[in-house]
Design brief:
- The complex is a heterotetramer, with one copy of chain A (about 230 residues), one copy of chain B (about 270 residues) and two copies of chain C (about 280 residues).
- Chain A is built from eight helices and two strands.
- Chain A is mainly α and about 230 residues long.
- Chain A has one domain: Arp2/3 complex 21 kDa subunit ARPC3, CATH 1.10.1760.
- In chain A, strands 1-2 form a two-stranded antiparallel ribbon.
- In chain A, α1 packs across α5.
- Chain B has a two-stranded antiparallel sheet with strand order 1-2.
- In chain B, α4 runs parallel beside α7 and α6 packs across α7.
- Chain B is flat.
- Chain B starts with a helix and ends with a helix.
- Chain C contains eleven helices and ten strands.
- Chain C has a six-stranded mixed β-sheet with strand order 6-7-8-3-9-10, with helices on both faces. In chain C, strands 2-1-4-5 form a four-stranded antiparallel β-sheet, with helices on one face.
- In chain C, a hairpin with a 2-residue loop joins β4 and β5.
- In chain C, α3 crosses α4 and α3 packs parallel to α5.
- Chain C is globular, with a radius of gyration of 20 Å.
- Classes of the chains: A mainly alpha (about 230), B mainly alpha (about 270), C alpha/beta (about 280).
- At the B-D interface, α7, α8 and α9 of B face β6 and α3 of D.
- Bound molecules: adenosine-5'-triphosphate (ATP) (2 copies) and magnesium ion (2 copies).
- One adenosine-5'-triphosphate sits at the interface of chains D and C.
């Protein structure tokens, strides 16, 4: 989903940067990084950065790699998640040439803003509405959030491309179906990995999730008597 | 290397970074330019190319990244390998255009009742797009290969990125390698004890990936507590006062950036 | 004479950064041998182990394991016959509980359940970790993790067992348990390779030593002989085990003829000597 | 007599899973002391170290460092006076190059550049890692990482230095370098706490020992005395250093009066003994 340089017009690129800068500033203000969180965010970002190199095959011999935006957001919260994903995208662009620099704004908008905030918002709303307690329903919500997040990020990319017809050839009638078909599959993989990861954490280290701004709001954490030191 | 597919990708990522580290330490034209000047010049080149629609002009400017590569001691084979994939993808992406663009047909056929024709305009459009994408990728890759992490950090410092963010970048970079090593060893250890090899994508391999990331996550989380303590013991503060030294902009850096920008602006306005 | 199980022939290896880690190392390991790679920090032991396990590819030269080149496609199949334990125990443990981790391998071997339990019970007891059975691996002390990680490999009874610094961070009792288990495996024909910089532990671990220094093979020989070569060891930043050093001196001064290798032998030989003199 | 720098008073600690790691440990450490926490795997050494560093909070009892409770808010400020090296070197190296890592601390201390360079050059040389200066930490061998991680703490010359298993994975030369540097620091008044399960290394590292077993303090005393108490050590899964064991036997049989602690002393004492007998 990384859009390389040469795919978007300057107008679209600049507009994307403008939106993204607003989110950066908000996120940065919101997280009020405490000292402890600096190494934590750095290390977790590194882990996801590494995990994103793992490719898996999708349709017609194409491959995709993990996006992880939803998982990051759900675990460390949307604001920290946005910063984390941004760091990853910048490193991918400047150290690997994966995704362009002029298109960095658009990539951040798709993957670090839409890809992170949408799943978090969905999960937050679901949780408010349904107050799920069973493992199955919680993980079901995780799946849906991750799936929709990935899909909407792809839709955003399709829109940006279609708005760039000065350099890019296709309009929304082509880009949208293409992206949706592809990402219905990638989205499932994304959702499955998110479910397994969060499921494992629920089992092994619920305390880690308890301090999460999103998952920590789950009803199962509410009347916990045993508190971590 | 006998490792599961996904693992090999992870390791290839780390190796590629190490490769960048090496190249960026060589002595060459691009390595000698101040990273900020380089960034501005490359962005200028990319933006200018977006306004160029003449194929001949585009093909001509493609020489520039190649000249950069040669003068920066980047092995050409590596250079082309790294840039080929994205351009190839752009070419494949353009195939539909060939048929969809109205204009003079250069080739026509009727398949199963459909009238298909490739137009000259379509061909032009597709080629221009592909060539431009290659130019952009090649320019960016030259920035990547000649800069390396060390100088990237200096670049951030010179565009006034907050120091906390720079620290986050450093930590991410450093522990990327730790994560890779951990992922690698976990997968190998697992493989040494798994007797059935599953090559294709299936639920099991996604499950494995998920559970390995989860266990790495727990370890990473716990490690971060110890790293924090180690940092604190050595005087870590969120307002970092150990300023990152930024390389000075010398006359030759300014000359490099401005000449490129002026030249490309001129070409773009042709 | 049986075919060597591992053949390392003029192997050179450099890390991507251009650090040359090994520049031309050759040796053979026969079936059932117990061999120690001894060398100071950074000499290339772990690199050699990764090469033998087929996880790195030599720049030149070749390595054959079970008669198969480690670079060949088919080597994949031989993986399961090799047990490997890394320097860092965390890398080895990936299931939610110790017992699952230990039984993961045997279960994959499709052994009957009874056998799986018997094997795991045996190794748990030997390594003194039976009480940790149901704990999650991340809730263990460093040394406990190390023991569990060794157990996961030992329980498989692989044909070739490769251990990188197995004794680091192990206390006495566990070290004894490890050596016991290695002895058992040896008896059934397992070939064992250990890497270490600690000469002290070698006499009980291995009967042949390959000394590696600065990416080269310095010496290769029987444990007793190599450990007595104090000059060579010190030149490469190592030292003989305390007992060997002490009794080496006594031998040099003509008090004894044979240098003992372990503490127990040493004690015996010294008391004998003193008794003789007293009379 | 000076105030103790560290006071551990009846400290109990359980991990969340309900594992009781320490059940009532007390001891004091005075300024300038070199103390070893000796105990087998899983006895609670690392837990104790984390408690002293203020990373964990005792369930009951209290710990004071520099007269300040580790649980108090103000303890944050004391962090920078404590140097700590964890068992795993990767926790310690968080910058992209060795030299940056070593200079990170001194630079934060706002020392003049000359001093920073002088200090780092000194410690690089002592630990034998000067040639690794510009390498990124991910391109080092395990032992090399361990050396660098020790160097990052040593270079700070902290008032209190805590080392968890410092000698594991270190070869002879580096071990010497470490001991040299610790001796230097000791002379300037640094208090040093090391944890280890390896009695062998203790005589040169510490002059007082606290033996921890199953979460309790078993014994506390001078290095020489504790190491000669073979019964106690063996009961808790440890053993005296080879030399102490050997010469302990000689003493028991009336050959010598004083048990040497290090290999060098041992050799000397034995040769003396043999010369006497020969005459
Ligand atoms: N994170 C944890 N969660 C639960 N229990 C733990 C945890 N870490 C350690 N323990 C347990 O606490 C006890 C003491 O562990 P500790 O790490 O202090 O031992 P140690 O003396 O440092 O051992 P080693 O020599 O193996 O490093 C052990 O029984 C161990 O199983
Ligand atoms: N990933 C790497 N990249 C570059 N160089 C490396 C890497 N790993 C190790 N080296 C270098 O290769 C050489 C051999 O390293 P190796 O890990 O094999 O040593 P070792 O004998 O296992 O040492 P130790 O006792 O410290 O574990 C060393 O000089 C080391 O600095
Ligand atoms: Mg090693
Ligand atoms: Mg410990």
């Amino acid at each position: 989903m990384h859009i390389p340089d040469g795919y978007l017009t300057t107008t679209v690129s600049v507009a994307a940067f403008a939106i993204v800068i607003v989110f950066w500033i908000i996120s940065f203000r919101k997280i009020k990084l405490a000292e402890q969180q600096v190494p934590m965010m750095g290390l977790l970002t590194a882990l996801f950065f590494a995990a994103m190199f793992a490719n898996y095959p999708v349709l017609f011999g194409t491959t995709a790699h993990l996006l992880g935006a939803a998982v990051i957001g759900l675990i460390i919260g949307p604001f920290a998640g946005c910063i984390s994903m941004t760091i990853i995208l910048v490193l991918q662009s400047l150290l690997f040439g994966d995704g362009g620099i002029t298109t960095l704004g658009a990539n951040v908008l798709n993957m670090a803003v839409i890809g992170v905030f949408i799943p978090c918002a969905l999960f937050y709303i679901f949780n408010k509405a349904a107050k799920p307690k069973s493992r199955g329903s919680i993980l079901g919500m995780v799946f849906v959030s991750a799936f929709v997040g990935d899909l909407l990020a792809a839709v955003a990319a399709a829109v940006e491309l279609s708005l760039s017809q000065g350099v890019f050839q296709y309009g929304l009638s082509v880009t949208l179906p293409a992206m949706i078909i592809n990402h219905s599959i990638i989205g499932v993989a994304e959702g499955v990995v998110a479910v397994i990861m969060i499921g494992t954490l629920l089992k092994l280290r619920p305390d880690v999730l308890q301090s999460s701004p999103i998952l920590g709001k789950l009803a199962i954490f509410e009347n916990k008597t045993e508190v971590e030191p | 290397m006998n490792a599961p597919t996904s693992l090999r990708d992870i390791m290839a990522g780390a190796e590629s970074l190490v490769y960048v580290e090496d190249l960026s330490e060589k002595k060459g034209l691009m390595q000698a330019i101040n990273p900020l000047a380089k960034l501005i010049a490359i962005i200028g080149m990319i933006i200018a190319s977006l306004f160029i629609t003449n194929l001949t002009v585009l093909l001509t400017i493609c020489v520039i990244p190649m000249v950069f590569a040669v003068s920066s001691r980047v092995p050409l084979k590596q250079f082309f390998l790294r840039t080929a994939m994205i351009a190839l993808f752009a070419a494949v992406l353009s195939t539909l255009t060939l048929f969809m663009t109205p204009g003079t047909a250069v080739w026509a056929a009727s398949i199963g009742g459909f009238n298909l024709s490739i137009t000259l305009e379509g061909l032009m459009r597709g080629t221009v797009f592909t060539v431009r994408v290659w130019f952009c990728v090649a320019s960016l890759i030259m920035l990547v290969l000649s800069t390396g992490f060390d100088k990237t950090i200096k670049l951030f410092a010179s565009i006034k990125v907050p120091s906390v963010v720079i620290q986050l970048f450093s930590l991410t970079y450093r522990y990327f390698f730790v994560s890779v090593e951990e992922a690698q060893s976990v997968l190998i250890a697992k493989e040494a004890r798994t007797y059935v090899h599953k090559r294709n994508l299936n639920l099991q391999s996604l499950k494995d990936l998920g559970s390995i990331i989860a266990s790495l996550f727990i370890r990473t989380y716990e490690r971060s507590e110890r790293v924090y303590l180690a940092m604190k013991a050595r005087g870590f503060q969120i307002e970092d006062n150990s300023k990152h030294s930024m390389p000075k902009l010398r006359i030759r850096d300014v000359a490099f950036a401005s000449s490129i920008i002026v030249a490309f602006a001129a070409i773009a306005m042709l | 004479m049986s075919e060597p199980i591992v053949t390392v022939k003029d192997v050179k290896f450099s890390y991507p950064a251009g650090v040359s880690a090994l520049h031309g190392v050759s040796f053979d390991i026969k079936q059932g041998e117990r061999i120690a790679l001894l060398g100071p920090n950074g000499s290339g032991k772990s690199t050699l182990i990764l090469l033998i396990a087929g996880l790195l590819t030599p720049k030149s030269g070749e390595i054959k394991v079970f008669g198969q080149k480690t670079t060949s496609k088919d080597f994949q199949k031989f993986r399961s016959r090799i047990g490997i334990v890394f320097q860092d125990p965390d890398d080895q443990l990936f299931t939610p509980s110790v017992i699952e981790d230990i039984e993961y391998g045997p279960k994959n071997l499709k052994l009957p359940d009874v056998d799986v339990h018997e094997r795991s019970a045996h190794v748990l007891e030997k390594m003194g970790i039976a009480h940790l059975k149901d704990r999650p691996p991340h809730r263990l002390s460093f040394g406990e993790k190390k023991k569990v990680s060794l157990a996961t490999a030992l329980v498989l009874k692989p044909e070739l067992l490769i251990l990188d610094e197995p004794t680091a961070n192990l206390d006495l009792v566990s070290r004894r348990g490890l050596i016991d288990t290695l002895n058992e495996l040896s008896r059934t024909g397992t070939t064992i390779i250990v890497s270490t910089h600690d000469a002290e532990a070698i006499p009980e671990l291995a009967n042949r030593i390959v000394v590696i220094s600065h990416g080269e093979k310095l010496v290769e020989g029987k444990t007793g002989e190599v450990l007595q070569d104090k000059k060579m060891l010190e030149a490469s930043g190592l030292e003989p085990p305390t007992i060997v050093d002490l009794f080496g001196e006594l031998k040099a001064q003509g008090y004894i003829n044979e240098v003992p290798l372990t503490a127990a032998e040493g004690k015996e030989s010294l008391l004998k000597l003193l008794k003789e003199r007293r009379l």
